[in-house]
Amino acid sequence: MQTTNIGIIGFGTVGSGTVRIILENSDLIKERTGIKLNIKGIADLDIKTDRGIKLPKGTLVSDANKLIEDPEIDIIIELIGGTGPAKDLILAAIDKGKHVVTANKALLATDGNELFSAAQTKGVYLGFEASVAGGIPIIKVLKEGLSANRILSVYGIINGTSNYILTRMSEEKVDFDAALKEAQELGYAEADPTFDIEGIDTAHKLALISSLVYGIPLSYEKIYCEGISKISTLDIEFAAELGYKIKLLAITKISDGDVEMRVHPTMVPVNYMIAKVDGVFNAIYVEGDAVGETLYYGRGAGDMPTGSAVVSDIIDIAMKKGSSYHDPLRPYGNARIKSIDDIESNYYFRFTALDKPGVLSRVSGILGSHGISIASVIQKGRREGEAVPLVVLTHKSRESNVKKAISEIDGLDVVSGSSVVMRVEGDED
Amino acid sequence: MQTTNIGIIGFGTVGSGTVRIILENSDLIKERTGIKLNIKGIADLDIKTDRGIKLPKGTLVSDANKLIEDPEIDIIIELIGGTGPAKDLILAAIDKGKHVVTANKALLATDGNELFSAAQTKGVYLGFEASVAGGIPIIKVLKEGLSANRILSVYGIINGTSNYILTRMSEEKVDFDAALKEAQELGYAEADPTFDIEGIDTAHKLALISSLVYGIPLSYEKIYCEGISKISTLDIEFAAELGYKIKLLAITKISDGDVEMRVHPTMVPVNYMIAKVDGVFNAIYVEGDAVGETLYYGRGAGDMPTGSAVVSDIIDIAMKKGSSYHDPLRPYGNARIKSIDDIESNYYFRFTALDKPGVLSRVSGILGSHGISIASVIQKGRREGEAVPLVVLTHKSRESNVKKAISEIDGLDVVSGSSVVMRVEGDED
Prior knowledge:
2 copies of one chain form a homodimer.
Chain A: E1 2-9, H1 13-33, E2 35-43, E3 60-61, H2 64-69, E4 75-78, H3 85-95, E5 99-102, H4 105-122, E6 126-127, H5 138-145, E7 151-157, H6 160-172, H7 176-185, H8 194-197, H9 200-214, E8 224-225, H10 233-241, E9 244-255, E10 258-269, E11 281-288, E12 292-299, H11 303-319, E13 344-353, H12 359-369, E14 374-379, E15 388-394, E16 397-398, H13 399-410, E17 420-424
Parallel strand pairs in A: 1-2, 1-4, 2-3, 4-5, 5-6, 8-10, 10-17
Antiparallel strand pairs in A: 7-9, 7-11, 9-10, 11-12, 13-15, 13-16, 13-17, 14-15
């Protein structure tokens, strides 16, 4: 019987879930793996709040360094989150030769190259399954399960808050503000929801995915990122009419040898599996050259789902202690990252057309002059003197051309306000 | 750079896919893992057919033992399938201290206890990712990804042929025979389709899943198994009317501390993710006590998807050579296996009611006398003198009671023929 001693830093939501899982399932884990997980210490600034978990006296301490300095602790679990003290704590743990498990996507996205490199130098493992898509073991799937594949593309719904809001807007026809308020009341969205609704959290996770599947250094700062706060129910309705759902997708794929990395609201055909992922659930679609299309679905957040991922990392490390691991993010690829201007996609445009003659001909003329070919148009019954929406779906077009065309169209006297532009997935042509 | 020498036995569909992946992606795999996969030899009785793959001279041999005896070969890949010579070849390879990777679910389901035990005795690894759900890395997910969880239930669509047939019956309103014929023409079903359509292949895979998640010895012979060959379009239509799809599910779960293992057509609410899995695709829904609901989706068969799983096992073994593995099927649990008679489920019945007075009252009387409570009834417009379908959905009932009730009802003079019984998933009460 091998005992693995764990030190947990951060006794909040995920920390509590992790502790609960270890306490409740340690016998089962021992039977399955032969390893006894022992929580040697838990550090949190707040050592007073009752989390409803019974711990041996002295387990809970206020100084994280006590755990990092403890020579008996094999693995440090960092669950305080954020880009502040978490980094120093992880680096200190690595420096002491300890393996580290973290759920901290924000930190890894911005400082991961330094952290993974430090872990490699010290020969320790930095587990981060919990940092992407909560309970879905997507990191293991990408790193090990699909290790034989050249990954062609990954499309992920990896922020439950945004997906919940979009689902409510679509199903209940409520607007963004109402859906956000509901999400906040239910505890799905934070008081300051910026990270979730502006796609930042999604981009943090995408940086990790891209780096993993394409072997490139973490490049969070190069991700094109657009959130859902400007999505209107009108566009959701037009999308539905055209056979699409609007989802906030994290997209990474290889095109012309370059890596695309982008986060934006996307129109997805309703019959795609990923379009069927509703509410707070996450899903990641992965296409490999050998395996073809696959999809992984589950909860992306929460104490127990995220704890499940943390503990699976702990077990992995414990079982392979002293042997070679599947390497963490060790860049080998040298693919360029494609600028958003250079991507090609189908597009949805919604123009607000004034009631003047020749609108469609002028709009389509400008699109045509930029090489943008129209696939379909919806122009709803006009009412004298009022602005009406003019919706256009395009064939595959280049983003830079789209930008130019839209800017020209927005300057026309027959359209008012800013036009809506959304990228559309589906059979490309 | 570590080179891993591989010997492949069986150069058919999966063998060709495996070889192709290794040849095409070996550089990528080397970059990712530091391991060079080298195909030292391929054995097949047919060494003449051109598979369109260029191999160094002397690679292809007709005698599998040549590979097993080769001291330079680290891993033997068994891809001939079936329960004949495959077993002896695997045992011989294990005996020589070689790791083995196989896609042979039929053999593992029936002889797996002996094979895994032999592998354990010899300290070698017996990889079987490719034997369940083709390209979906479900074995890794269950064994490692969800290792922190007590698994509450697994529901799988793990036979693409059956799912294709059911999808066609549902979408095109063709009957079973026509859908089967189409599947055969497309190469999705074999000339003798028994294993696929009668649920045997599904049960082979379920045996592996159950053993893995509940730590019990492989118990294929204890699986209740019912295929799809008796499904009629009429039942598919009634299911749709009631808000369900009919899917051939492999089910294993813990109820009252016992393990259920069953394969049968099941009515699944259309809004469940697994109900949305159509065509030849596979999906496995897994519910863990910590992670909650998860689902894994992809192709369950084919040269490249299955090859993807084979090669991921090879890479796993190569990367961990000389270290401890996540144990293969090492039974630790002692849960009883529940008889089908003791399960509880909601049920769908379709009776063929003759045009006589009091049918519903007599049928419902018998159901009531066996403690079976009716949730809803559909009785369509009767036509004078003709038999009409009478459809009943029940609340949660015990299978043994259902059997008794149906047998009594089938004896009534007001019903004709045998009644249709199907288990129904959904919110239980």
